[in-house]
Amino acid sequence: MSEDTATSDPSPSRSRPEPPGASLEREPRRHKPAEARREQILTAALSCFGEKGYHASTMDDIVRASGLSKGSLYWHFSSKEEVFLALVDSFTDEFYVEWDNIADSVEDKLEVLKRECGVSVRRFSEKRLFLLAWAEFVTHPAARERMRDAYAIAREKLEVIIRAGRANGSLARGPSEDGVASALVAALEGLFLQWLVDPEFDLEAHFAMSWELLEKGLRP
Predict the structure, then answer these.
(1) Which CATH code, of 2.60.40.10, 1.10.10.60, 1.10.630.10, 3.40.605.10, is assigned to 31-78?
(2) Burial letters for 149-181: b for 16+ Cβ neighbours within 10 Å, e otherwise?
(3) Do 71 and 117 touch, CB atoms closer than 8 A?
(4) Residue 102 near residue 119 (C-beta atoms within 8 A)
(5) I need a labelling partner for 47 at 20 to 30 A (CA). Which of 12, 61, 65, 206 fits?
(6) What are the CB-based long-range contacts (under 8 Å, 24+) for 27-34?
(7) How far apart are CA 55 and CA 143, in angstroms?
(8) Which residue has the higher pLDDT, 14 or 193?
(9) Mean pLDDT of the 150-173 span
(10) Taking 60 as the threshold, does the pLDDT of residue 143 lie above it?
(11) d(C-alpha 156, C-alpha 154), whole Å
(12) What single string gives the DSSP state of each residue in the chain?
């Protein structure tokens, strides 16, 4: 038998099954993108902070909740504080993107305010754990600074809408734009606080009733 014939002979000895893991050795293991890992960590952290509180939670708790290694966690975040601040940034960034989309697509500014307040209610109703963690973390200096900035941005965005609504006649003239914006934020915060301390408080139903009162003062 020639060498060529021997080489091409599909004998049983050449059809042995691959050893376990052989395909993994040939093909690189696929890892999740860094952004997906960060989101996995933030989701786990939110669960820990909401259930145990920020101060009682540890980085080890976040590791266990995320299912990742400690090395992977510390690759993305150097401390528990950094994790929470990233949570705040992520939440507010998504929140304001929705606000901006509404403001850009709706001409009636009274309707814009209603929808933006509704987004606020929906966002927090979906993230009660975040609200619980937020309430505890407010005692932290770095968090207070982040929250102060978040409130300032919210008021500024509302002021722009109120000014535009008064200009095109869809909102009534009256107190300063800053004063009206602050009142809207305060109304929402009051609802959130009541819901935070009382899970039976119907946040969406009370928002609907509160908006009826607010609308009377805003309508031209």
Answers:
(1) 1.10.10.60
(2) ebeeebbebbbebbebbbeeebbbeeeebeebb
(3) no
(4) yes
(5) 206
(6) 34/76
(7) 13
(8) 193
(9) 94
(10) yes
(11) 5
(12) --HHHHHH---GGG-PPPPTTHHHHHSPPP---HHHHHHHHHHHHHHHHHHH-TTT--HHHHHHHHT--HHHHHHH-SSHHHHHHHHHHHHHHHHHHHHHHHHHH-S-HHHHHHHHHHHHHHHHHH-HHHHHHHHHHTTSHHHHHHHHHHHHHHHHHHHHHHHHHHHHTSS---S-HHHHHHHHHHHHHHHHHHHHH-TTS-HHHHHHHHHHHHHHHH--
Q: Which two tokens stand for residue 123?
A: 């966002």
- Average pLDDT over every residue of 60-86: 93
Cα–Cα distance for residue pair 65/38, rounded to 1 Å: 13
Q: Which residues contact 91 (CB under 8 A, 6 or more apart)?
A: 123, 127, 130
The answer, yes or no, to whether residue 179 has pLDDT greater than 50, is yes
Q: Which pLDDT score is estimated for 180? A: 96
CATH for 79-218? 1.10.357.10
| Amino acid identity, position 187 | A
